[in-house]
Amino acid sequence: MPSHLPTSMQSFIPVGVEQTREAALLPQNKPRNRFNNVLPYDWCRVKLSASNPNETSDYINACYIPGYNNNREYIATQGPLPSTVNEFWKMIWEQRVKGIVMVTNCTEGGRTKCERYWPADRKPCSYGELVVTIRSEQREPEWTLREFRGNTSEEHTVRHFHFTAWPDHGVPQGTEILIQFRGLVRRHIESDGAEAPTVVHCSAGVGRTGTIIALDVLLQQLEKEKAVGINGFVHKMRLSRPHMVQTESQYVFLHQCIMDRLQLDEKNEEHIYENEEHIYENEDMIYANATALQMLTKA
């Protein structure tokens, strides 16, 4: 264990590693794992249904992750491989997912991090039994928002939140933009997607994935409880998937996000207090004017 890591981070690095991963280690499932050290635990892995008798596995490298409201609020998964794109969409369909959060680019530093799993243009594209169409795409400097429509015997709409300014094993340049991005995701979940898990992935599905999930949960906790338990929640995530919040820089960045949000809230409270003082000053002036007017009337 690296000695330079913060003591609090060192304390939960080994958490969960003794749990079984038998399904992930089956010979037929090993090629479905992007990395051999990021494997879902048996107790919390997402299981696919068998849609035909020839399917021999329910396996996908994906885990249910607890959130602020329930124990299956998110699904953390790896970026799909060329051979697992169909399984990825099958999971989206079966879990009735309404939001996908992608915090990697398909290619970074000349290396493939995630297979593109959506159509390159507006033409429909088939992924197994599912036909997917892009209904809209909005590009911003740090992210792209898409809306997908999937069809089999019924129609299903999925929002795609793609953050494009987050380097692998690193952190974004500042906290504000990621907090804003998280706000877009949270508003969607609360307005349309709370009944189903939100799928979150990067390349391995642990570092950037764990950081954005933790940020979403901790900001909810801060808003509702006026306190946060960063170490406790990272520990909890790692019981469901190994290496969640993978690097020291991601762990420190998560703390910085919370600190910056606290400072912003304090500034907003000061602004509200200043406005209240201004209101009270106006009330005093109105009262003084009313008193003077009454005296003039009596005279």
Automatic annotation (TrEMBL):
This protein's record includes keyword Transmembrane helix: yes
Pfam short name (any one): Y_phosphatase
Classification via Gene3D superfamilies: Protein tyrosine phosphatase superfamily
EC number, as in UniProt: 3.1.3.48
GO molecular function: protein tyrosine phosphatase activity
Entry keywords, A to Z: Glycoprotein, Hydrolase, Membrane, Protein phosphatase, Signal, Transmembrane, Transmembrane helix
Cell compartment(s), UniProt: Membrane
InterPro entries hit by this protein: Prot-tyrosine_phosphatase-like, PTP_cat, RTP_Phos/Ushers, Tyr_Pase_AS, Tyr_Pase_cat, Tyr_Pase_dom
Residue ranges of every copy of the Tyrosine-protein phosphatase domain listed in the record: 24-261
Annotated Gene Ontology cellular component terms: membrane; receptor complex
Domain Tyrosine specific protein phosphatases: 179-252
Cleaved signal peptide residues: none
Source domain of life: Eukaryota
Identification of the protein by name: protein-tyrosine-phosphatase
Keyword Transmembrane on entry: yes
